[in-house]
Amino acid sequence: MGARAVSLLQRSGALVALVAAIVVGAMRYYDFLTAENLLNVLRQNSMLGLVALGMTFVILTGGIDLSVGSLVAVAGVVAARLSPAGSLVALVCGIAAAALLGLVNGVLISKVRIQPFIVTLAMMIAARGAALAATSEQSVSLGAAASGLAWLGRGDVGGLPVPVLLLLLAYLVGWVALRYTRFGRYVFAIGDSEEAARLMGLPADRIVMATYALSGALAGLAGVILTARLGAGQPVAATGWELDAIAAVVVGGTLLSGGQGGAGSTLIGVLLLGVIFNLFNLEGTITPWWQWVMRGAFLLVVVVVQGRLQRREAHG
Amino acid sequence: MAQSLGLEPARRAPAAAPASLRRHLPGPQYAALGALVVLVVANAVFTPHFASTSNLWNVLLQVSTVVLAAVGMTLVIATGGIDLSVGSVMACAGAVAAVLLERGTVLAVIAALAVATLIGVVNGTLIATMRVQPIVVTLATLIAGRGIAQVISHDGELVTISDPAFMQLGRGYAGPVPVQVLIALAAVAVALFLLRSTPFGRYVLAAGGNPAAARLAGVPVPRTIMTVYAASGLLAGIAGLIVASRLGASDAAKIGQNMELDAIAAVVVGGTALSGGRATIVGTVIGALIMQVIATSFNMLLVPYAWSLALKAAIILVAVYLQRPRRV
């Protein structure tokens, strides 16, 4: 019974915290539980959410992707550069560029066998350099022809902002892929034990490459949306997003050691961090610096509690 | 490749750690040293004014803070950990010193280093006793530490420093030698001594090579891990003081930004494996010098900053590739 409660808490602790945060918000702030505010939270976190989804796949295989922030910038710059050729070209090429760099990560990790931390650290530096070099360190304005991109960033479908719609769609697809497809099973198997997965004959190399390419592609989509929202591609955009994405994944309950977690957990993690930020802002008296302190402290508390629960589960 | 052979015993059994200590001498750090020599010679030939005394002192001066952080990082990585918080710790130390300087130089410096060490102790405690992954713990202190530095400096203000004694840290000279270079050298010497000639050094390598076996062999693994993170915090704190003194101000947003990346790059280029169980302080110094020589020469040749980033990334990858463990 106790073990079961612990296991439940381990799996849905973030959900409990999210519900608690929403209840506190609803009771304390008049403006919190309005459609406008909630949509705002979703819209502001949609791009980070996409990045965190890709990060989830990577972390589930036991890897890590530090390059996502730089890939967001690369995709944003590529999309802005190509926007005179039309919105669709800009969107596709932006995503493709980031996915390709993600694939390079995957190849170096699975075929050349360099640690994910190092490969993606190098890619983080190099891709940021490429974005800066390609733009001479200036931001690139969107072409006038790119009305489709404007819709991507600011439009809505039946009251739902397009970025939010894309976020929800991506998570739905990600959740189905992890739960109900062979690819998803393989991802978990590799995260549990890559050696065992290989011995069972799973195409581990291909799966690992696919997860990094996917992480790149989702970062690319986030980058194109960011450019569409800002009206310009900025080579310095999304600095530090890799940290926010990792935090969201970990807070959601996906283990950094791989093999445990999922897309739903990460969405809850993203929303939890987003709602907490929103509450800080509604409170209005907490300076951004204190928000950083609290964010770090919150992340620490979550991982410590998670570690405890996990060990109890393992023993009990 | 002889250097990869030295890796296997150290990874398997901590008992082999002393042997690997001896064996790591003709290891990858010679490859790194070779690369450094090639770089310096090429620059002396092709880059105008590179081989001037003032420029060479300048390289050493600029590299000293990276060396300080990277020496701590080497110890942490040798235990199989990582410390992402060093940049934020630097900012915290700078902020504490700047705010307290009017009450006395010594007090300010001691308080700043105490805060820096304390953050390291927090990292170490959570990692050693709560067994949370180092990357998450230090990610959290990276985020929180930057916020703390801003809060300390009167909510994100630039706190200027005018204390003449404190200014010696980043601007003073002892003869021809900048004070900060001496400090970095002292840190390197102490770390070398600790790693090579004390039980603590053996413990560090044993804890990184195989923690379970180390524990069974009576190595105080948690205490060792706490100590390396505390040392990393202290060294980052010293680096933060030097940068604040150089700037003449505590800039909580800028000091130490991305230092974790530079330090990790110096460590891995120098030949310390991220998997733990090995450490080469000399290699780390060479790694830091390689990165600095590239940055300086690209600067002098007016190559855009962006390209130096690309080359940095390539060097990290190649260095790690050459040192990667072979699959058995």
Oligomer: heterodimer
Q: What is the CATH level 1 assignment of chain A? A: Mainly Alpha
Q: Number of helix segments of chain B?
A: 16
Q: What CATH first level of chain B would be assigned?
A: Mainly Alpha
Descriptive account of the structure:
The complex is a heterodimer of chains A (316) and B (328). In chain A, 77% of the residues lie in helices and 3% in strands. Chain A is mainly alpha-helical and 316 residues long. Chain A has one domain: Orthogonal Bundle (ABC transporter involved in vitamin B12 uptake, BtuC), CATH 1.10.3470. In chain A, strands 1-4 form a two-stranded antiparallel ribbon. In chain A, strands 2-3 form a two-stranded antiparallel sheet. In chain A, helix 1 runs antiparallel to helix 13, helix 4 runs antiparallel to helix 10 and helix 7 (162-180) crosses helix 8 (182-192). The radius of gyration of chain A is 20 Å and the shape is globular. Chain B is an all-alpha fold and 328 residues long. Chain B has one domain: Orthogonal Bundle (ABC transporter involved in vitamin B12 uptake, BtuC). In chain B, 73% of the residues lie in helices and 2% in strands. A two-stranded antiparallel ribbon of chain B has the order 1-4. In chain B, helix 7 (105-128) packs antiparallel against helix 8. Chain B is globular, with a radius of gyration of 19 Å. Residues 1-17 of chain B have low confidence and may be disordered. Classes of the chains: A mainly alpha (316), B mainly alpha (328). Chains A and B meet through helix 5, helix 11 and helix 13 of A and helix 8, helix 14 and helix 16 of B.
Question: In summary, what is this structure?
Answer:
With 316 residues, chain A is mainly α. Chain A has 13 helices and four strands. Chain A starts with a helix and ends with a helix.
